[in-house]
Design goal:
This protein has helices at 16-27, 34-47, 58-64, 97-106, 110-123, 136-140, 154-167, 174-190, 212-232; strands at 5-10, 30-33, 51-52, 55-56, 70-75, 80-85, 88-89, 129-133, 146-151, 203-206. By secondary structure, it is an alpha/beta fold. It has a single domain (5-232), classed as P-loop containing nucleotide triphosphate hydrolases (Rossmann fold). The relative contact order is 0.22. The chain binds 2'-deoxycytidine-5'-monophosphate. 2'-deoxycytidine-5'-monophosphate binds at residues 12, 34-35, 38-39, 103-104, 107, 133-135, 184, 188.
Length: 233
């Protein structure tokens, strides 16, 4: 059977990774979380004195960029893929609010994007991948056979993310979470390098008022149609 590439883009905290994981598991494909890579670079600058008074030391980052090694490895403890930053498992550290607040310092840097896009393209070379992010259908895999663009109302996303963070025991307020989401929406859509935009051939899924199961069925129907089509080519 022909293997395809599935690109999932959309706003922060839209459930992209939940859907991407479900599809990958169902199809026996690899799931790749491109946001984890940007988060890992953010953690790197935070840990290496490259953020001063909330500002990025750009020259410092560019000087060290080649030495930042990011890869994924299966973690037998969680039975999930873990993000490694220079060989260290940073999977839980990159999910904190502190890292979320620093990502937009590094995600607009063209050199950072170029490095991570190259890595993402290499990971998708064999097809049979589901990758989620902001520029997957537009920049990373413009020829992806399936492109989904996910969205939901900001207040719905904030409530879901707040719930997730509470389950992890994080001491954050709903207002703080919603402010972070709105700021990232603005940064993602207005940055010069590879801003978040819907690819013309992407299918929009607004999940504000549907369940994860309904969303999965909707996406799977799209994938099955495309698989039937490419199977006949
Ligand atoms: O999907 P996420 O929230 O884990 O992504 C973290 C940040 O990385 C988010 O603020 C936007 C950025 N990002 C990006 O610029 N390009 C991508 N392909 C994926 C994420």
């Amino acid at each position: 059977m022909n293997r395809i590439t599935i690109a999932i883009d959309g706003f922060s905290s839209c459930g992209k990774s939940t859907l991407a994981r479900q599809l990958a598991q169902h199809l026996g494909y690899a799931y790749i979380d491109s946001g984890a890579m940007y988060r890992a670079v953010a953690l790197y600058v935070m840990e290496n004195g490259l953020v001063k008074d909330g500002r990025l030391d750009l020259d410092g980052l560019l000087g060290q960029l080649d030495g930042i090694d990011i890869r994924f490895q299966h973690d037998p403890m969680t039975d999930k893929s873990a993000t490694l930053l220079n060989g260290r498992n940073v999977e839980s550290e990159i999910r904190t609010m502190d890292v979320s607040n620093h990502v937009t310092l590094v995600s607009p840097v063209p050199e950072v994007r170029a490095k991570l896009v190259r890595l993402q393209q290499a990971l998708g070379l064999e097809k049979g991948v589901v990758m989620d992010g902001r520029d997957i259908g537009t920049v990373v895999f413009p020829d992806a056979e399936v492109k989904l663009f996910m969205t939901a109302r900001p207040e719905v996303r904030a409530q879901r993310r707040y719930h997730e963070l509470q389950m992890k025991g994080a001491a954050v307020s709903l207002a703080e979470v919603e402010a972070n989401i709105r700021q990232r929406d603005l940064d993602d859509t207005t940055r010069k390098a590879d801003p978040l935009t819907k690819a013309p051939d992407a299918v929009v899924i607004d999940n504000s008022d549907i369940t994860a199961e309904e969303q999965f069925r909707k996406a799977l129907d799209i994938v099955v149609d495309v698989l039937a089509r490419v199977g006949q080519e």
